[in-house]
Every structure is written in structure tokens, then in C-alpha cells.
Amino acid sequence: MKNVTLISCLLCLFLLPFYVSAQPALSQPQPRFQAGIIAGGNFSQVDGDLDAGVHKVGLNAGFSSYTMLAPNVYLNLELLFSQKGSRYAREWQSYAGPYLMVYQMKLNYIEVPLLLHYELAPRWVIGAGVSYNRLVQSQERYRGLYAWNDFDPEKYPYKKNEWEYVGSASFRLSNKVIAELRYQYSITPVRAVADIPQDFSGYKAQRNNLFALRIGYYL
After folding, report:
1. Fewer CB within 10 A of the end CB, N or C, for the chain?
2. Which CATH number applies to 2-23+33-218: 2.40.160.20, 3.40.50.300, 3.40.605.10, 1.10.3730.10?
3. What is the pTM of this model?
4. How confident is the model at residue 156 (pLDDT cuts 50, 70, 90)?
């Protein structure tokens, strides 16, 4: 169901420009500085666990600013609350027979992305940069045969600081509204191999791997 939702969101994002292209052009030149708010969602997975596929949905929201450095070139700095992690289900065996085990990893970050953007056309913008992430909350657990079991974060710690690559493609819906698709991947690991619970390890350091769909409103 979540994969269907993701595909629907992606289709809406990329079909929207065909609708907007029939509308009048941008009413005025872009200002040298804009600040605003961002709201959207992360569609995440964690490389290095026992699963592949985007199954974890979380919030991506906060504040954003654009500063024009040269014609068509912008510096973008943001302060975000960003929810990442992993979620999957698989069949396990027990003395009572097979059962469905559900695993959840929830990682909440304060995120500070810094990107350089280039406006390819009056509406289309591409960007690339890096993002610093500070872990503020984590939860890791699985549902066994009878109940949920939580992992001790002191015994299986995550790294408090993490850096990610960021790539983006944006479309200006108006002078004040921007729709954006981002891809992010960890430069530094989320957790070392030695700190991963044994039965949930892919035998390599864990890294965030996600897409984000966002809408920004700028003054």
C-alpha cells in the first residue's frame, strides 16, 4: 500500500508541470533572497539491514532560504525536522511454526542541507550539495511471536552525527511556490557493523537511502 502511495505521489509531482505549463509565465523576476517554509515527506530505507525497498514514510518539514549568487545560480540553506529509518515484515520460524515478524527502525534528525541550485529554464531548477544530520531520537524494535521487543540504544548505538549527499529537481509553480523531488544517501554511516543486532544485520555499515517529496512556500 505504501509503495502505491509513493508511486501516486511521484506521478502527481511529474504530471503537475504539464498542467501548470498551460498557465501564464512567472509574473516577475525572482528576488535575490527568499525565505519560507517546507512541508513534505521522506520515503526511506536503510542499506545494511535485512531488507531492500522503500517502506518507511516520515515527515520532512522546516525552514528554507534561497540567495541568488549570480543569474540562475542560487545558494539554498535549510533547517529541517526529518524522519528516516526502515520498516519491513518477513516470515520467521518458531517452535510453534512460522509467523510474521515486523521490524521497525525510526530515526528522527535535525537536518541542515546546503545546496547549490541552477535554474535550467524559467521554471525548472536542479541542485546538488550536502546535508548535516544530528540524531535527536531513535527507536528500534521488532514484533516477535507474542509481543513487541525494543532494542537497547545503549547496546546498539546509532551515530549522533551523519552527512549525506543531496541531489534535487524542482519546479516553480509560481514566484512563491516550489515543488521538489530530492534524493539523499549517507556519506558517513548511520551505524557501524559491530553495533547492529546480529539477527538484523546485512553485515555492512548502515546508511540512509531516501527520496523526499516537498512543497515550499517562499515570501
Report:
1. N
2. 2.40.160.20
3. 0.85
4. very high
